[in-house]
Amino acid sequence: GVDYAFGDGWYVNGSFLYNSAATDQIYSVGQLTGFQLTPKTLMPAKWSFLVQGTKSFTPLLSGNFSVVYSPKVNLLILLPYLSYSIAENWDADLNLQTFFAENPEQQFKSLGTSVNLRVKWSF
User: Closest by alpha carbon to 68, among 99, 94, 41, 37?
Assistant: First the structure.
């Protein structure tokens, strides 16, 4: 992977992951979440690329947008994320995960989306 922090608060990251124990086709979120996760199989596809950008908009609000793409299986994962500091030791995080893949008919379709809200107290 390669990363770089810019002076204006932007941080960017680009990474590559190779999985020798990969599958060739992904048609459902169950295939993404149902495979055996090990240090050798972090993703179900053989080749995966990650591009990520992070920015602190204010001292209280930061955001992150990540894209994971696996070309052989035509899998795309979009991961936007917002974090807001509510008060000292309190944070609220909004996280979206959306998955797209090519099905057997060669159509690129959504496999599903998840939206998560987390309120965190640090002590």
Answer: 99
Are the CB atoms for 92 and 82 separated by under 8 Å?
no
pLDDT tens sequence across 69-98: 988 888 899 999 999 999 999 999 999 999
Q: Return the bridge partners of 10, or none.
A: 55
Residue 96: other Cβ atoms inside 10 A:
14
Q: CB neighbours of 107 closer than 8 A, spacing ≥ 6?
A: none
How far apart are the C-alpha atoms of 49 and 55, rounded to whole Å?
20
The pTM is what?
A: 0.82
In whole angstroms, give the CA distance from residue 1 to residue 120. 30
**Closest C-alpha among 52, 62, 66, 53 to residue 91:** 62
Q: How many CB atoms are located within 10 Å of the residue 109 CB? A: 11
What is residue 32's DSSP assignment?
A: H
Distance, in Å, from the CA atom of 38 to the CA atom of 31, rounded to the nearest integer, reads 15
Residue 59 CB neighbours (<10 A): 7
